[in-house]
């Protein structure tokens, strides 16, 4: 762990700030916190970290050194949600298979590296909810620059497990064209002196520590036959040592000779990585997209005495989604059933390429990809030459198999957080760890005459969490609409009850389908008004006692005709019983990240056995009230962007049982101490440092958040003094001027003096300020490297933001510009990834610029930290130099690939302006 300097703290602030919840916070009612006396501890010497906890991404060498005991981020990447049991629902159309399976290989996080372990404020995340159609999720990730061994983030595993879906991490050996190295594969399959595979043991250690379910091995780097043989032995080693609940999935890529040659089939060449005699090598195989027919693969699996549905025919939907050439119908046999199982590569298209991170488009795309254009799994109208939706051929599964079952229809993101119908935290968020089980059927709705209700996920209102189910459309008085929600396999007792929380419905009756019964059981309930228009209806399950409930739905009515909006906020099945939760002990602040001098993100962990506990809510106590800060299923959490209100803050962690009830007396409190407030930091920049007499110049100060005043003094300027973070001066006389800036806060003042910073000249002296990078004499032949000849250094100096310098092979890329002769330099402008039309998340974050006259002795003139902009300007005091060196200390916001579309070196094509 590394302590931060204030310079690096300020540089990091904009990145970490993007992870926090919104700042506008509502408080729990005062009575919520009273009569609870908890033991409160205080901790000093809290370790400082550069960033909030991040998901793990490693290379073979770093995997070997990894340990959950030594990795400070490890506790925050753990999933504590057990894998739920689940069963198949009743077939919704005749085409659905009850045998074939679905493998989703999804890019669940935007980046391989730099993913916050437990969510943040970005609402537009891949919070997948159609788990009813997925049998295994591969959390796809990996890159040569960020890491090739990538376990799933704990929040994804939590949501998948709650829905009964196992999750596996990725081992990705890239093709050489994408930075793959044969030495990585060799290191990975290396044996020790005892004949063991240390890397395999580490994979098992990580999956056990983090709570996920195995690994997807994607080997696309050309190696020799010896390494290829070792890889097969490696997988067999994993098979004999992995727990029964874990699985190893192999990608049809490498052959026994070590060459990558995708077969698009299970055949004699690659079968050894699937099955060898009686020995299972991999549990599943993902057949590459190049397949032409699947009958031979099915026959080969049968010949090997393996289930053909352990083979997954790949359909690549990354670029085109539902417009992809291959369709779910493409893998059907003559009998209309899948020949093998379905493997979808990058169904996250729904959010990324197909949705462009627009949430409304995401939900529409999810409907098209997983269900069908009708949004009804019963529909079979789509022809085979169109995308039919996964629901057409794969039966729904459900984890609703035991009581209690509680859902708030919370998808794990939203515009605000609600508790019991009241808004407790403003601002967009994502937290997949607390995603509920969403309806099995999207949607099965039967409207009586005159009703036209349609259903959608809504963030407009919620009962608990950030979302609800919205039913909207025309309704006729006293005509009901049936909404089938969940497939189930439940047995209720005579004393069991159910509750439904709705808003906008005049009547809601419970509809249960029972095994062996042709007609559903309809139960009327008793209504009770709650806050903000929410109504709770309670039902007795006595009529269903000792019978198996196979589905759960609702009938809703309105008393008057017209346009209707009805929200479903909660469904609770099972009588609330006394279920004592485990007490929480030993709340420890295990680390902090200083966002700015008024704001810190705080890591905390606690001890508990977790009995009967669904989640933990974290509060900050302010003036006797509890302010909600977050919720997790884990035993570690990071509260983001906590504002200083004095030197100390009291935090409380409260366990929540499976009925959603808080057990405050089982919680724990601790006092957190903020970093001592220091004098402010200040950095000064100018719009230009070389101007003619009579023109104005803008000076700006980047200061600590605690700064109360910024005062300027430029002797000889008009005016000579000014106040504010941005000020303007002009000059009536030529000369060299010094800038003094003073920042003040409650702890004192910080003064910055930039001697001889501004050069003012007479307009008629012939000075021409231009971009020296595009002069014929300027070249670039030195640097860390580039991906190919079309992305070499020279393209950073051509003045064209359609071309770029790109280097993805070095941790800290650098390049040198040779101006051909000594010239006068006054500043620089950099155009990053966003300026070229790429993601702003690839913009250079931290960089240095140095200059030299001889190419040997360098003077650093720019240290820019925390950039997020598509372009950045840095003015410097005039300097004479021939060479300029750009060093990318952090080439992206999270990764290390250089993407510089243009580097303008601003100055004058002459010397002598700088006076001795």
From TrEMBL:
Pfam families: F5_F8_type_C_2 (PF22633), Glyco_hydro_85 (PF03644), PKD (PF00801)
Superkingdom field: Bacteria
UniProt name for this protein: Uncharacterized protein
SMART domains: PKD (SM00089)
Stretches assigned to the PKD domain: 680-750
InterPro entries according to UniProt: ENGase, FA58C, Galactose-bd-like_sf, Ig-like_fold, PKD/Chitinase_dom, PKD_dom, PKD_dom_sf, TIM_ENGase
Single Gene Ontology MF annotation: mannosyl-glycoprotein endo-beta-N-acetylglucosaminidase activity
Annotated ranges, domain F5/8 type C: 760-908
Gene3D superfamilies assigned to the protein according to its UniProt record, in alphabetical order: Galactose-binding domain-like (2.60.120.260), Glycosidases (3.20.20.80), Immunoglobulins (2.60.40.10)
